[in-house]
Amino acid sequence: MKIGILYHRFLDENGNERLIGGIQTYIFNLALLCIENNWTPIIFQLSNKSFRKEISGITVVGFKQTGTNLHKNVTQMYREASNELDFNKDIIIFGADHCSIKTNNPRSVSIQHGISWDMPIKKLRPNALFVDTKIGAYFWKERLRRTAIKRFDNCPNRVCVDYNFINWYKSMISDQVTGNVWIVPNFSNKSQLKPRFDTVESDDTVKIVFARRFTEYRGSTLMSDAVSILLYEYSNVEFTFAGEGPDESYLKEKFANNSSVNFIKYMPDQVLDILSQFDISVVPSLASEGTSLSVAEAMSAGCATVATSVGGITNMILDGYNGCMVSPDVDELCESIRYLLDNPSNRIKIAKRGQEVFNSAFSLERWKLSWVKIIKNIDLKPSVFDNY
Q1: CA dihedral in degrees (337, 341, 347, 348; nearest 10)?
Q2: pLDDT of residue 345
Q3: For residue 221, what pLDDT is reported?
Q4: Labelling 73: which of 134, 229, 258, 371 has CA 20 to 30 A away?
């Protein structure tokens, strides 16, 4: 059986290199899962030119896009994919519901990656008409909400990465949820290294990391404010910003003369090795989170995790048990970090519980089992439908 996975970008627009991103990582692991189960994955994407190549045993097919209208291009890509797939026997997976089209194909499924519009409309649509007025802001937010519902309703089978979206969706529709909806939390690989609490004494320097893209909505500014405050209060703390992004110059300039603040870069497959060198990982997102890959990675590596109550993160952490949950507020963030600094034994307990929760709920193995069940369930669906 072939499994076609459609997304607008897996490789770059010229089909040369794999892009670094959460959805791209998700799709890559989904394709590898297909190979493990003797299913044939084909990733279809939009590109500047047509191409066909193999990546880690995965066939990637690029369709030359026309214009900038994503919906029209994805519709055409879906039709083109029908030349390689038998839609009555094979399965089609839309890598994200914003890259899906309306179909009643019972052998299709789309993936909903979490609420992404939970931020001020000025940041989402900075050049939109009347965005500076209350009426205009309401109009654009309402449009985003309606679009999210429409996209989710495109397919009869849906996979959500958290409960946050599906609970919101239920509150917005007037009837019962139709079709199939599976909740499959995001995942991380299991760290093969000993966590720092097993390798150092509790009175050593406490190492704290912010390991994600340096952008405002991922919490880079919020984190920098907390670092400035805590550096004045503690002499045994070392902070590391791990990653890159548009706020990199601002952060480096702000802490240029402070030896207790470090900056490093890493490749995605190095993240667990990096995190295992730290005591505390901070995930201070302001918006746009499913079940956070950063939180799962931190728990896997044995870090005590401080995260904000945004999106699907609320499905991952019980405050004070397997992590610390705060509002995206600098005072609350500092308060939780102080608690972990001042109570090393509790910090270790929280880190250990985080690993236990990760192994039970957010491991790659559990994610694979869930997806195998879903694909086998869809494979039982009838084969007759109106194509498009």
Answers
A1: 140
A2: 93
A3: 96
A4: 371
Instruction: Give the SS3 label for residue 271.
Output: helix
Give the chain's residues under pLDDT 70.
201-203, 381-388
Q: How far apart are CA 334 and CA 160, in angstroms?
A: 32
CB 304 within 8 A of CB 323: yes
Tokens of 19: 């892009």
269 exposed, middle or buried (CB, 10 Å; 0-12, 13-18, 19+)?
Answer: exposed
Which pLDDT score, from 0 to 100, does residue 203 have?
A: 62
Residue with tokens 């990096």: 274
What pLDDT is recorded for position 204? 81
The answer to whether domain 2-187+366-379 and domain 196-362 are alike in fold is yes
Q: What is the DSSP letter of 18?
A: B
Domain extent listing, the chain: 2-187+366-379, 196-362
Task: Give me the sheet containing 58-64, strands edge to edge.
Answer: 51-55, 58-64, 40-47, 2-6, 91-94, 108-112, 157-160, 180-183
CATH homologous superfamily of 196-362: Glycogen Phosphorylase B; (3.40.50.2000)
The label of the residue with tokens 């999210």 reads: 148
Alpha-carbon distance of 59 to 61, in angstroms, equals: 7
Please give the CATH number for the structural domain made up of 2-187+366-379: 3.40.50.2000
Q: How far, in Å, CA of 28 to CA of 168, rounded? A: 28
